[in-house]
UniProtKB/TrEMBL annotation:
Protein name: Restriction endonuclease
Entry-linked InterPro entries: Restrct_endonuc-II-like, Restrct_endonuc_IV_Mrr, tRNA_endonuc-like_dom_sf
Protein species of origin: Pseudoxanthobacter soli DSM 19599
UniProt GO molecular function: DNA binding; endonuclease activity
Gene3D superfamilies per record: 3.40.1350.10
Pfam family, one: Mrr_cat
Keywords: Endonuclease, Hydrolase, Nuclease
Biological processes annotated in GO: DNA restriction-modification system
Lineage, opening ranks: Bacteria, Pseudomonadati, Pseudomonadota, Alphaproteobacteria, Hyphomicrobiales
Ranges where the Restriction endonuclease type IV Mrr domain occurs: 19-129
Length: 337
């Protein structure tokens, strides 16, 4: 049967649209560097690593990776991978700079955290638009491209996040203005706000069956999120325990020793988030390292400031999980022999 040439063309699939958008983003970033007076080479292989853009001007070489992920999904994972590739090249020779151009929505908190963690310059869409301002047509093309994937959190959601941040900041400044029960409630509200529905079934003031031990609250992990699935598999745990220490000063090793009693590999309960107003002292960190090294128990030490960062990163899909993943990774690689 003859093919009907009048039929409408098949629209590109979501995957094809994402690929087309990524290519377009790279083209626009390359054009921006050209407009800024750089000599641009695309898809350059340097020391075995393929770099999206190498821009050269005078004696300055800038290695650029372009991120264009729909709806900000997993942007921080992509930033980590690109930063590692850039750093491996830059460490080989001098006179090179690393830039990751994010042609997608990225919160200020995610930008600041990425630069501090990955040691590269992050050009978010605001910076790209600012640099493209003298080139009206190019700026318009950036605006058109980013509007396809832009997303803003609902106002009620951002209001709740702002309220939680203010409560945490007030608590940092004002020391013991909260009772232990009020601090537990605040911490639980933060984790519910940031990680619902992946973390669910929160239970306060939970006791072990013999009544001997009580932990502040516990929750279950819903499958389907890569970070939490990996945590559950890596540490053979069915739940996450939370201990909240409402102390005026940094917590000490004693708080780790008392918390460690609640964790048992045989009960599939091996992970605890130990939260405190100001975080741990050095002895507390060594005690948590000992629990990991000797028993395989993960006691992740978090402060009010860490909870604030989690809230700020909530608008970036995967941002809070990446923050915790980086904390756990840094903890693991720092373990003494």
């Amino acid at each position: 049967m003859p093919r009907d040439r009048s039929a409408s063309p098949v629209p590109p699939s979501p995957g094809q649209q994402a690929t087309m958008r990524a290519f377009r983003a790279e083209e626009l970033v390359a054009e921006l560097f050209q407009q800024l007076g750089y000599r641009v080479q695309r898809e350059e292989a340097i020391s075995g690593a393929r770099i999206d853009i190498v821009a050269t001007k005078d004696e300055r070489s800038v290695l650029v990776e372009v991120v264009s992920t729909s709806l900000s999904r997993n942007i921080l994972n992509k930033l980590r991978a690109d930063a590692a590739r850039l750093q491996s090249v830059i460490s080989i020779g001098d006179g090179k700079e690393a830039v990751i151009a994010v042609v997608a929505p990225l919160s200020p908190a995610a930008k600041e955290w990425s630069e501090s963690q990955f040691h590269v310059s992050v050009w978010d869409i605001d910076m790209l638009l600012s640099k493209a301002a003298p080139f009206a047509n190019l700026r318009k093309q950036f605006e058109d491209l980013t509007s396809l994937g832009s997303r803003r959190p609902a106002k009620a959601d951002t209001d709740l996040g702002g309220d939680l941040i203010r409560e945490l900041e007030d608590h940092i400044r004002e020391k013991s203005t909260r009772t232990p029960s009020q601090y537990e409630d605040l911490c639980q509200r933060v984790f519910t706000y940031v990680f619902d529905p992946t973390l669910y079934g929160f239970k306060r003031q939970a006791h072990t069956s013999d009544g001997a031990n009580r932990y502040d609250f516990i929750c279950r992990i819903r499958s389907g999120n890569q970070f939490w699935d990996n945590l559950r598999a890596d540490f053979r745990t069915k739940a996450v325990l939370f201990e909240c220490k409402n102390y005026d000063e940094k917590i000490t090793a004693d708080q780790v020793y008392s918390t460690e009693r609640y964790l048992f590999a045989g009960a599939l309960r091996t992970v605890c988030f130990l939260i405190s107003r100001l975080g741990p002292d050095d002895g507390c960190i060594r005690a948590a390292q000992g629990a990991m090294r000797e028993s395989g128990k993960l006691i992740l030490l978090l402060s009010n400031q860490d909870l604030i960062e989690l809230i700020k990163l909530k608008s970036d899909d995967g941002g809070p999980e990446d923050f915790l993943d980086e904390k756990i990774w840094n903890f693991v690689i720092s373990l003494p022999r």
